[in-house]
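Appendix B. Chain record.
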Amino acid sequence: MTSYLARLIGRHNRLSEDMARIMRPGRVDQYDPETHRVRLDYAPDGRKKFLSPWMQLPEAAGNNSSKVTPVVGQTMMSFAPNGDMRQGFAMGGFFSDEFPVPDAGDGLILLQRGDARVLIVDGGIQITVGGVGLFVSAGEVKTTTKTILNNGTRPAHFKGGKDTAEDKAVDGAEGVLI
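Structure tokens predicted for this chain:
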């Protein structure tokens, strides 16, 4: 009876430890951009670090894919099926006092489908399809190919240049740089 009770208590303790590992909040301590994996620190603030193993970050993958780069210090939740941290992955990113809900967002956000990409970075948005691109920032719009403005059908001109009728331009399109 005593050995049965000891085994039962031991089993209970192992199950309790496994349950505690199934879902666990932690802060991003390290990020590997090559593998898109993180290590979380589970220790409360001010205590010695208690790091998770490297964990995958689930994202939309395949034809419709996305990638959101985590920030060191942000809170995430780890999930470990059956409490097995070797199968674990980290999800989320929770807003906090340190990382409040952003007005416009910080960091890198990438949306991609096939060869079409939208990349949002501090200060601008880059859109590319194949080898053709557009970058929009507060001060300018840059393109990497022929640009058509306002459904225009003729090239922009510069002061002193000649149009298709060989007339000399007396003013220029100063807002359009080509």
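Further analysis of this model is presented in Appendix C.
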